[in-house]
Specification:
By secondary structure, this protein is an all-alpha fold. The chain is built from eleven helices and no strands.
């Protein structure tokens, strides 16, 4: 145990000296914190989330004396929510897609009432579904002092959704080419988007059972380890050795490998986003 603590302290001192030298040289050694946390964590909370993971890992390492356990806890705090959770993020994605389909129908219906395209876009911005209303209101404000095609490019960036790209592309084509069949096209796009949402919902229901089983397995395993550490610590003494830490690496590798596979297989491939870009020659 003393050898492990001394080795860990020596590694920390060496790491601190290396960080100091690189800081004096002005070399960036740490990546952006937002890239180290799950995508579902807002960028403004990335530093706090990363700090929580580091603190949790240090506490676990100091309490148990197992460096591998500390690293595993820190990594678990970082990637656990993405591997075993993410329902709220997927629900927001579905709600956004459904809101885009509703907005497309609203544009079609407003244009059917003898309103022009720009007028219809401005009218629907204030009554659009909540998930996209802020982006549409900002678009309506830009539209008052920007050409329609430029404002639509900004709208695609604000909505940041592949379904929105398809609707924006249809609107931009209609604005530039004065397409007369925009209404039927918007109706078909809305139907396709809703069909995609229904398909994803059916798949999500089946995968939710798998994630629930994984959470139960992880919870039972963690509870068992805590119980043994508190009431039967002698059963965990083999992990106090270097060889024991090596086997703990194998165990943690199996857990994290399973988590990575679960996360990868639970993700649905979405179409690559595209935005319309207009050159000066095209506008002329």
């Amino acid at each position: 145990m003393h050898v492990l603590i001394a080795a860990a302290l020596g590694a920390l001192v060496g790491f601190g000296i290396w960080l100091g030298v690189t800081a004096i040289r002005g070399v960036r050694v740490l990546p952006d914190p937002a890239r180290l946390v799950p995508e579902t964590v807002p960028a403004e909370r990335a530093v706090a989330w990363l700090s929580l993971a580091v603190v949790a890992g240090l506490v676990m390492g100091l309490v148990t004396g197992w460096p591998v356990a500390g690293i595993a806890v820190a990594a678990g705090v970082l990637v656990g929510p993405a591997a075993l959770g993410g329902e709220a993020h997927r629900a927001r994605e579905a709600a956004t897609a459904d809101a885009i389909a509703t907005w497309a129908d609203m544009i079609r219906d407003t244009m059917a009432g003898a309103s022009g395209l720009e007028e219809s876009l401005i009218q629907t911005a204030s009554v659009a579904p909540t998930p996209i209303r802020a982006g549409l209101e900002a678009f309506a404000r830009r539209l008052r002092h920007q050409p329609l095609d430029v404002a639509l490019d900004g709208l695609a960036a604000d909505l940041n959704h592949s379904s929105a790209d398809m609707v924006v592309a249809a609107l931009a084509a209609a604005a530039r080419l004065e397409a007369r069949d925009l209404g039927p096209l918007l109706a078909r796009l809305a139907e396709a988007i809703r069909g995609d949402v229904r398909m994803r919902s059916r798949i999500e229901i089946g995968r939710a059972r798998i994630r629930t089983s994984a959470r139960i397995a992880v919870g039972i395993t963690a509870a068992t380890v805590v119980f043994l550490y508190v009431f039967a610590r002698h059963l965990l003494e083999p992990y106090n050795t270097v060889a024991g830490q090596g086997w703990l690496v194998v165990v943690m590798g199996v857990f994290f490998g399973a988590g990575v596979m679960l996360h990868r297989y639970s993700r649905l491939e979405t179409p690559e986003r595209f935005t319309l870009r207009h050159t000066t020659e095209e506008r002329i």
